[in-house]
């Protein structure tokens, strides 16, 4: 009885959905499955290829529920894509395009146009399917910490496990059971990307990281394959991609990566948002107007500790209803006036450095220079208030087509055409050589998908 009630409730819900979207009642037939045999039709195969659901999750549902689940999951992708895209979203890339394809019955052609054509996406999917075909993987045995140059029975297993994950370690330089320099450097890069102590040793934490099951690895890759769906399916000819967990910016041209550099991103309590926008202008010698929360949480405490902090760093005070700039020394910083605004003048100490790349978004997020280059030497660089600091902004200026300006004062130089920029959250990705990489989940987003 309860089973029949549940099935009737689902049927009523499905009919309500059809009415809301203006679909004819005959569309209650499965969109994604062949009637009668429960096999995916061509459109269903394309959709599951995009969504990469865990097969066991679908197998446990009746066909009607599987069909509704797939549609719901794709709508969630489109909702996230709409939030991600800060400029106008083409109807084809949003919910309207999907609903039109449902009504017209042109799902095959529609989903074919939704397939991302980025090489890194295709390579990541190949790794995902390879893990699904893996019957078993080498397990690293428990044991003591192994330092570079030391021998241990676990080292041959370590080499096999790394090869199974696509890391292709170099052949041993000496004894096969020794942790040689090449193998240690490979471990160091893996540890650094994952937020572990990057000492190149085979530690207990490194064993645990490498010993993750194929199912655990596939789950992480699945999260990241879904994140690729937020970008326009067809890659722009030229675009900037900032991978937040990797602390890396890459400029892509039609031939591939043209420029890479380190970046600093937002702290875990002040995260850099995922978004897609366009670089519309370059601001040379920018001033800086910090947001109210930066003033409240960072600048006011610094000024209270040191009354010369704001003046020494080039800040002027602006008060509502009072014309002209105010000297910070004239303000009672224990009880500052409401509506106070701070502006840091352009100059060598300005927090934005010499260049600010203007991009449309409601979060007041942009790419910029910084006078403090020391932090780029840190392995973990989630240090900012959300904006993205660039290690080599002058290189990006030149590669985007601007001549390096020598202006003394603040100037805004429009881009000859807007340059797409994507701030993404990839904790696993594939480089140009086909190498699979992992990064620390700095904002713990993999736990909430």
Describe the protein's architecture and organization.
The chain has four domains: 2-115, no CATH class; 155-212; 233-287 and 346-449, L,D-transpeptidase catalytic domain-like (Beta Barrel); 292-339, no CATH class. Helices cover 35% and strands 16% of the residues. The protein contains 14 helices and 13 strands. It has helices at 2-20, 42-51, 55-59, 63-84, 95-104, 107-113, 119-133, 155-164, 181-194, 204-210, 214-228, 292-305, 309-312, 393-399; strands at residues 239-243, 248-253, 256-266, 275-284, 315-318, 341-344, 355-359, 367-368, 382-384, 388-390, 411-424, 428-430, 436-438. The strands form three sheets. The chain has an eight-stranded mixed beta barrel. A hairpin with a 4-residue loop joins strand 1 (239-243) and strand 2. Helix 2 runs parallel beside helix 6 and helix 7 (119-133) runs antiparallel to helix 11 (214-228). The longest helix has 22 residues, at 63-84.
- Largest sheet descriptor: 8 strands, mixed, barrel
* Ends distance: 34 Å
The residue ranges in which pLDDT falls below 50 over 5 or more consecutive positions are 1-27
Would you give the CATH topology of the largest domain?
Answer: L,D-transpeptidase catalytic domain-like
What count of helical segments does DSSP give? 14
Rg value: 26 Å
Q: Would you count the extended β strands for me?
A: 13
The proportion of strand residues reads: 15-25%
Number of domain units: 4
Helix/strand/pairing class, anyone? alpha+beta
Helix percent band: 25-40%
Numbering strands along the chain, what is their spatial order in the largest sheet?
A: 1-2-3-10-8-7-4-11
* SSE arrangement, N to C: HHHHHHHHHHHEEEEHHEEEEEEHEEE
Question: How is the quaternary structure best described?
Answer: single chain
CATH superfamily of the largest domain: L,D-transpeptidase catalytic domain-like
Q: Please, what is the average pLDDT?
A: 89
Could you name the CATH class of the largest domain? Mainly Beta
> How does the overall form come out from the CA principal axes?
globular
In CATH terms, what is the architecture of the largest domain?
A: Beta Barrel
């Amino acid at each position: 009885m309860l089973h029949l009630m549940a099935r009737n409730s689902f049927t009523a819900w499905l009919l309500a959905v059809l009415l809301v979207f203006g679909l004819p009642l005959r569309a209650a037939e499965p969109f994604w499955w062949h009637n009668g045999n429960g096999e995916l039709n061509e459109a269903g195969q394309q959709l599951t290829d995009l969504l990469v659901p865990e097969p066991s999750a679908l197998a446990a549902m009746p066909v009607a529920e599987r069909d509704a689940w797939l549609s719901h999951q794709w709508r969630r992708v489109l909702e996230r894509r709409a939030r991600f895209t800060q400029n106008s979203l083409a109807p084809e890339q949003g919910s309207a395009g999907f609903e039109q394809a449902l009504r017209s019955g042109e799902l095959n052609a529609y989903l074919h146009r939704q397939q991302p054509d980025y090489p890194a996406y295709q390579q990541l999917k190949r790794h995902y399917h390879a893990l699904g075909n893996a019957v078993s993987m080498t397990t690293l045995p428990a044991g003591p910490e192994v330092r570079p140059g030391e021998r241990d029975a676990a080292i041959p297993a370590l080499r096999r496990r790394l090869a199974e994950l696509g890391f292709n370690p170099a052949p041993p330089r000496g004894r096969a059971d020794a942790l040689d320099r090449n193998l240690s450097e490979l471990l160091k890069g893996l540890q650094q990307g994952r937020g572990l102590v990057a000492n190149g040793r085979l530690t207990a934490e490194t064993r645990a990281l490498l010993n993750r099951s194929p199912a655990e690895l596939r789950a992480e890759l699945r999260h990241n394959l879904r994140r690729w769906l937020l970008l326009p399916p067809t890659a722009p000819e030229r675009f900037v991609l900032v991978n937040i967990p990797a602390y890396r910016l890459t400029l892509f041209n039609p031939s591939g990566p043209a420029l890479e550099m380190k970046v600093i991103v937002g702290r875990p309590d002040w995260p850099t948002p995922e978004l897609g926008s366009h670089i519309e202008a370059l601001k040379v010698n920018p001033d800086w107007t910090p947001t109210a929360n930066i003033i409240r949480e960072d600048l006011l405490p610094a000024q209270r500790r040191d009354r010369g902090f704001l003046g020494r760093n080039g800040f002027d005070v602006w008060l509502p209803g009072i014309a002209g700039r105010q000297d910070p020394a004239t303000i009672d910083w224990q009880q500052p006036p409401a509506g106070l605004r701070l502006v840091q003048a352009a100059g060598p100490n300005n927090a934005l450095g010499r260049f600010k790349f203007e991009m449309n978004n409601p979060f007041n997020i942009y790419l910029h220079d910084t006078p403090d280059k020391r932090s780029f030497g840190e392995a973990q660089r989630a240090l900012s208030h959300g904006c993205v600091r660039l290690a080599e902004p002058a290189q990006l200026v030149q590669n985007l087509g601007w001549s390096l300006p020598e202006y003394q004062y603040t100037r805004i130089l429009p881009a000859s055409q807007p340059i797409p920029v994507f701030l993404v959250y990839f904790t696993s990705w594939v480089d140009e050589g086909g190498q699979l990489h992992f990064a620390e989940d700095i904002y713990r987003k993999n736990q909430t998908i």
